[in-house]
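Troubleshooting log. The previous structure file for this entry was overwritten by mistake, so regenerating from the original sequence record. Sequence copied from the archived sheet and checked twice against the printout by T.R.
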Amino acid sequence: MKKIALALLVALLSACTTPAPHLDHSLTARSQSPRVKFIVIHYTVSDLPRSIKILTEQVVSSHYLLTDTDKPKFYVLVDESRQANHAGVSNWKTYTQLNVSSIGIEIVNPGYKDTPEGRLWYPFPQAQIDELIPLLKDIQARYNIAPENILGHNEIAPQRKQDPGPLFPWRQLADAGLIVWPDANRVAAQRLIFEQQVPDAVWFQKKLAQHGYATPQTGMFDEATRNVLIAFQMKYRNTRFDGMPDGETAALLEVLTTPATAVATK
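Regenerated output below.
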């Protein structure tokens, strides 16, 4: 009787066991690419303890957190193979919802402080940038990320974000060969032309969209268009980022959207 019961138990367990799939890895599809196509840089607007708490215990997260200690280091919070919730509602070129296709890097930085004299932005210590650049180079090389796809949060969400702010040293990233920077001689030549007559809203909106920003095509310098201009100016002309169209901004846009004149500095 015991033998019969044991046999029935074995049969029952066997029936409940799902057979393992037969996987053959000998073939590889030609049409494929890495999931990661973008790197998005943020500031935390918090000190280190609060940044850690927010990024490890709340809904928002990032793959990396760069500390502001005397010797900065990275905390790896989310494995690169997994999605972090850092980009939110976002657009760049034809891509949307960039959480899916990006690696997010948060840098501990207070962001800004509003004072009676105006808004004061906090700089990034050189030690942080010296730690950041090697990681950017490593990620860019591993995923073959295009230089124009290393971005600030404000570039992919200009209507709601300002980080990493106007004091983030994008030019240092260009000097390291990570991103494209407009050629100064070409910009100067174009500026002479555009300062004679600043282009209209249609031109700016078309060029901003061509560069990659989600830009309304209203033919007017509305608030949304000015927000995009602010994001652009913060990156490429951080001495003035009021969102106003002018000859210098037009020259920078013209050069950056003309491949023959938009070159990396290294």
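The chain has two domains: 38-175, 181-263. Archived copy saved in two places this time.
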